[in-house]
Specification:
Number of helices: 18
Radius of gyration: 25 Å
Shape: globular
Oligomer: single chain
Length: 647
């Protein structure tokens, strides 16, 4: 890797930012639009649709407790994903995907319930009360006392439900099991656990060591998961209000509706037994609460999400090869952090499972923590000052600006790969403040992703973390993945996180996803994979449309008609695969369609990146002045009051 040094001017920064820019909002329709294609839409948006089955199984809940109509009343009819980072700049960029939900609700019969709860009883092992069950017992308004506790392996329950569903429930399709064990004679107080994936760098086992990682929901495990895969693809998430109470959603606290004192109730779902006349919530609210979990957690955050950043990455065309260009500022005396706290093979392996159509590779170098790197770091973290005040950026932009000015010394694979991803990690001495475990930065212009940052120090290692899992998570953001605890609600147009009326969105973290904060696994979930494949299918379709418009507007369009017709057929096949929920095949076909349009462009003498360049120019001319003090990154905090820091 190149070790060239030197600092660029502000003009160079502007040029680099322009090079990183990739506006994916749709160009005006081509003059050749409406040229008789059935699926190719030259110069226009993709028009991909999917009728998404959503199985809901009430297991231990009776219709008298959870009325079907009351439950369905708050659920949306469909969803249109948007690029969430564009919302920071008041841009609504749709992907050209439209989902229509097909709800299939059923109540398990007594025979099935008896089988399932017998299995829970078999899996349950006696355990001490968690800290949070003890805290519940201390609540002034608690309606019962938790007398004992049991641990149940979450992955085993997910497996049983996935492979033994009620008759007529196809768990190959998105399936929610709402579980209530309370009220049966065989009920046992319990929490769910996952203890077989310690941190790969430190060996710390969050699942075993922390009561805060005892959960009440789980799901999303892939068929090939190294620890818990069950060999076939299933899409299951279960949620159990008779478990816990637990830390992650703080539903042990039944005395204080407003947890942070801001005057707004932090809405959460109490344990099942608190839905009673003298409990935390009226029994009439139970159906609506399970509907809220379905809509704002299962649908928006797990099954059908919106990407945080554009999945196609800031290139003129969707990349086929990606280089993870990892750079570690080594400032921790006596420690080689890149060798000790970064498993490069695991990083690449996990990312390859998400971006399975890309050729991924990785290179790395150590950089000295000195000069502008150290000066700008300490300026923001110690003094709260901008390293480049003359540019007008907020102090937190120091990380972005300094690495942009010195970018030439790290990028050495351009021309060899389609996309080189700049990754910067800081290893700092004890006592040095860090901003977060990591964050995925944007370009301070339009919400396009720019760089990935991660941090390690003696304090972070003492908390159980190295660099590997942070980088898997942050690169996941860079590739478009959102957290499972924050997202976008298409029907209302609201982008939300786990606070105030959406506090219960923390339930989304209780899933087998690297994008969670729960620290119980290091894999991307089946839901992550499905959504990434959908996003990329739409991206290839959009790129094919855009380039086809340029081809048809060219002087030699007639030379390319055959290739465009072939692309049209392939996009039709991609749509049919999407309708069958075969997301991998849909992606393959959309990519092939784009390749045919690329060949059409070659025959017509059209540069394949011309449409992207024209679109970026138009967007730059139309863009209003942005607020340089606004949100520009997705920060993954380890704050003392956050859920990750709890015992």
């Amino acid at each position: 890797m190149s070790t060239r040094t030197g600092r660029a001017s502000a003009a160079t920064l502007t040029a680099i930012a322009a090079a990183l820019l990739m506006i994916v909002s749709l160009a005006p329709a081509s003059q050749a639009a409406g040229s008789g294609f059935s699926h190719l839409n030259p110069g226009g948006a993709p028009k991909l649709t999917e009728k998404v089955p959503v199985n809901v199984v009430f297991l231990g809940y009776q219709p008298a407790q959870v009325d079907r109509d009351a439950y369905l009343a708050g659920l949306p009819s469909g969803y249109e994903p948007v690029v969430r980072s564009r919302l920071w700049y008041d841009q609504v960029e749709k992907l050209g995907l439209t989902y229509t939900y097909d709800y299939r609700v059923r109540y398990a019969d007594k025979r099935y319930e008896n089988r399932f709860f017998a299995e829970l009883g078999r899996l349950a092992t006696p355990a001490p009360l968690t800290i949070y069950q003890e805290l519940y017992n201390e609540q002034r308004d608690a309606v019962t006392t938790i007398t004992d506790n049991h641990h149940i392996d979450a992955a085993s329950v997910e497996r049983w439900l996935a492979l033994n569903p009620p008759a007529g429930v196809d768990t190959r399709r998105n399936t929610i099991f709402f579980i209530n064990w309370f009220g049966r004679s065989d009920f046992k107080f319990h929490v769910y656990t996952k203890t077989n994936e310690p941190d790969p760098d430190t060996g710390y086992n969050f699942g075993a060591e922390r009561d805060s990682r005892k959960v009440s929901a789980w799901g999303g495990t892939t068929a090939d998961d190294e620890e818990n895969g069950y060999g076939v693809t299933r899409r299951v998430w279960f949620h159990d209000l008779s478990a816990g109470p637990e830390s992650w959603t703080e539903n042990w606290n039944v005395d204080e509706p407003d947890l942070d004192g801001n005057g707004v109730e932090d809405y959460r779902m109490p344990p099942t037994w608190e839905y009673t006349a003298d409990g935390y919530r009226s029994p009439d609210a139970l159906a609506g609460d399970l509907g809220l979990i379905t809509r704002y957690v299962a649908l928006n955050l797990l099954f059908t999400t919106s990407p945080l950043y554009p999945a196609e990455l800031p290139t003129s065309r969707p990349p086929k090869s990606i280089n993870i260009d990892s750079n570690v500022y080594e400032g921790w005396d006596g420690v080689d952090a890149s060798a000790t706290y970064l498993d490069k093979d695991l990083l690449q392996q996990e990312l390859a499972e998400l971006r399975w159509r890309n050729v991924l590779d990785h290179d790395d170098q150590d950089l000295p923590f000195e000069g502008d790197a150290q000066r700008c770091y300490l300026a923001v973290m110690v003094d709260g000052e901008s390293c480049y005040p003359e540019l007008g950026y907020e102090p937190f932009a120091n990380f972005y600006l300094q690495n942009t000015f010195e970018l030439d010394r790290v990028l050495d694979d351009q021309g060899r790969v389609d996309y080189e991803m700049p990754v910067f990690s800081y290893a700092v001495p004890a006592g040095t403040p860090v901003p977060a475990l990591g964050f995925a930065e944007d370009n301070y212009t339009d919400g396009t992703q720019s760089y990935v940052f991660a941090f390690v120090s003696p304090e972070i290692v003492s908390a159980g973390y190295g660099l590997t899992t942070t980088l898997i998570h942050e690169v996941g953001h860079h590739l478009g993945m959102s957290h499972p605890h924050d997202g976008y609600d298409s029907e209302s147009g609201v982008d939300y996180g786990p606070a105030d009326e959406f506090f219960f969105a923390w339930y989304g973290d209780q899933v087998n996803s690297m994008m969670s904060y729960i620290d119980l696994n290091w894999d991307f979930s089946q839901f992550d994979r499905d959504n990434s494949d959908r996003f990329l299918t739409a991206a290839y379709n959009e790129a094919a449309n855009r380039l086809a418009g340029e081809v048809l507007d060219s002087r030699h369009a007639g030379r390319a008609r055959g290739e465009l017709r072939a692309a049209d057929r392939l996009l039709g096949a991609a749509q049919r695969s999407l309708s069958r929920h075969d997301y991998r095949q849909a992606l393959i076909l959309a990519e092939q369609a784009y390749d045919r349009v690329t060949e059409a462009a070659r025959r017509a003498g059209v540069p394949t990146d011309s449409a992207a360049e024209a679109m970026a120019t138009r967007a730059a001319q139309a863009r209003s002045v942005v607020d340089l003090g606004g949100p520009h990154e997705f920060i993954d905090t380890l704050g003392p009051d956050g859920p990750r820091s709890q015992p």
